[in-house]
């Protein structure tokens, strides 16, 4: 079998959230589906896929690892990470999908078989930056708990407009004011009161804050017994993360902004996090997610993959989670599930706060091309200037 083409689709059934899907075609009519969406600049990644076509077309799609290494190694002089690992991700997921379809089994069977009946999820309520009141957020949390979820995440930090004038946007590091920290404590405290002590609650700082702000916030929030405090500081500096670690008493999750197994080595070796959360669409696909999970397992660190993209990312991450022993929970945004069904033929069933497997081979879902076309956006609009 040979790869004959790679097609990309940027589509936006939810306004403001463009998704980038990848379809690998073969000379035997089998196609594989992948995703490497990034809301900030899908155009860059789509052009990256276009640029690697000459290396991938003509290859045997069964050679997943060889193709992974080929794209990665040929870009190592510029790092092999970020946009490059996203390009690899989209193609890698599609190649696993092809392998599953050829062999007639779900991908999790190719990864050693299931180690669980279903995959536990966590989902989101509002983030404070989105503007709802604390009461509105508590109402959403109440409904989410009633729907069967046992764990939710929120970003309780208001937008800190610390930058102005000609340098606005030159630095993404924000500083929390005392009143913003008090608001965050009120936000999280209201959730804890509503949900009870046994419900799992996570806070995401979205890598926004300087070290002093993050430490001050963690000290205020630790009494709410969070499952984790996510990305407390920007992702580039392991030293900043270490400083946060040494000056806070709260569990840490990082990884959505780390790319390939190599970025996770310092986190694990230096014990900088209690959970790792790589994203399948950015860090290197099914192959790399599996490797990062195994790396974390050897440090007894739970794997809890980030997942805030489209339906193909959810369905392919699910395949890895089914076969991964050190899984904690898979992320989802349950409010999007109905939108997923607008553009794919089926999804793993979700009930009781978990995803349940389909018997379909590969990753188990297909695009509905007419619907993908209906919500298509031009490549130039797959890049959001407001991100
Ligand atoms: Mg996050």
What characterizes the major β-sheet? 9 strands, mixed
Number of helical runs? 14
In the predicted model, the low-confidence regions spanning at least 5 consecutive residues are none
> What structural category characterises the helix and strand content?
alpha/beta
Rg over CA atoms, rounded to whole Å, is 20 Å
Which cofactors or ions or other ligands sit in this model? Answer: magnesium ion
The structural domain count equals: 2
Average residue-wise pLDDT? 94
Percent in strands? 5-15%
By CATH's scheme, which homologous superfamily of the largest domain applies? Enolase-like C-terminal domain
- Cα(first) to Cα(last) distance is 40 Å
| Gross geometry | globular
Q: For the record, what CATH class of the largest domain applies?
A: Alpha Beta
Count every beta strand, where a strand is a DSSP E run of 2 or more residues: 12
The CATH architecture term of the largest domain is Alpha-Beta Barrel
Helix and strand string, N-terminal first? EEEHHHHEHEHEHEHEHEHHHEHEEH
Give structural notes.
- The two termini are 40 Å apart.
- It contains 14 helices and twelve strands.
- Strands 4, 5, 6, 7, 8, 9, 10, 11 and 12 form a nine-stranded mixed β-sheet that branches. Strands 1-2-3 form a three-stranded antiparallel β-sheet.
- With 387 residues, the protein is of the alpha/beta class.
- The longest helix is centred in the first third of the chain and has 21 residues, at 83-103.
- It is globular.
- Helices cover 40% and strands 14% of the residues.
- Helix 3 packs across helix 11 (285-297) and helix 9 (260-269) runs parallel beside helix 11.
- It has two domains: 3-105 and 370-382, Enolase-like, N-terminal domain (Enolase-like, domain 1, 2-Layer Sandwich); 109-362, Alpha-Beta Barrel (TIM Barrel).
- The chain has helices at residues 42-56, 64-74, 83-103, 107-110, 134-146, 178-195, 211-221, 238-246, 260-269, 280-283, 285-297, 311-322, 337-343, 369-374, and strands spanning 3-11, 19-26, 31-35, 119-124, 151-154, 200-204, 228-230, 252-254, 275-276, 330-331, 349-351, 354-356.
- The structure holds magnesium ion.
């Amino acid at each position: 079998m040979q790869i004959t083409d790679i097609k990309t689709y940027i589509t936006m059934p939810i306004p403001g959230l463009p998704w980038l899907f990848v379809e690998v075609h073969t000379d035997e009519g089998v196609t594989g589906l992948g995703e490497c969406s990034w809301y900030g600049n899908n155009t860059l990644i789509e052009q990256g896929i276009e640029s690697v076509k000459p290396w991938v077309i003509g290859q045997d799609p069964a050679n997943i690892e060889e193709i992974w290494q080929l794209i990665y190694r040929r870009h190592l002089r510029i790092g092999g990470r970020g946009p490059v690992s996203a390009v690899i991700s989209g193609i890698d997921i599609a190649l696993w999908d092809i392998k599953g379809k050829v062999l007639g089994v779900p991908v999790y069977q190719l990864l050693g078989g299931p180690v669980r009946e279903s995959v536990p999820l966590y989902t989101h309520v509002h983030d404070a930056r989105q503007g709802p009141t604390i009461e509105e957020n508590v109402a959403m949390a109440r409904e989410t708990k009633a729907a069967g979820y046992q764990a939710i995440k929120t970003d309780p930090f208001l937008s800190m407009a610390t930058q102005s004038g000609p340098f606005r946007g030159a630095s993404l590091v924000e500083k929390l004011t005392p009143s913003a920290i008090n608001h965050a404590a009120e936000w999280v405290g209201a959730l804890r009161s509503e949900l009870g002590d046994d419900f799992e609650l996570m806070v995401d700082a979205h890598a926004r804050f300087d070290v002093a702000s993050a430490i001050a916030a963690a000290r205020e929030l630790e009494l709410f017994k969070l499952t984790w405090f996510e990305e407390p500081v920007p992702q580039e500096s392991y030293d900043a993360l270490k400083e946060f670690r040494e000056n806070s008493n709260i569990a840490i999750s990082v990884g959505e902004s780390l790319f390939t197994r190599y970025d996770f080595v310092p986190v694990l070796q230096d014990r900088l996090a209690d959970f790792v959360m790589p994203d399948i669409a950015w860090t290197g696909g099914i192959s790399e997610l599996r490797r990062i999970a195994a790396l974390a397992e050897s440090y007894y660190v739970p794997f809890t993959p980030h997942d805030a993209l489209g339906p193909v990312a959810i369905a392919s991450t699910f395949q890895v989670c089914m076969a991964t022993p050190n899984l904690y929970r898979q992320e989802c945004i349950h409010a999007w599930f109905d939108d997923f069904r607008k553009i794919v033929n089926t999804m793993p069933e979700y009930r009781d706060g978990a995803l349940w497997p389909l018997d379909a081979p590969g990753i188990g879902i297909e695009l509905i091309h007419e619907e993908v076309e209906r919500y298509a956006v031009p490549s130039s609009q797959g890049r959001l200037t407001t991100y």
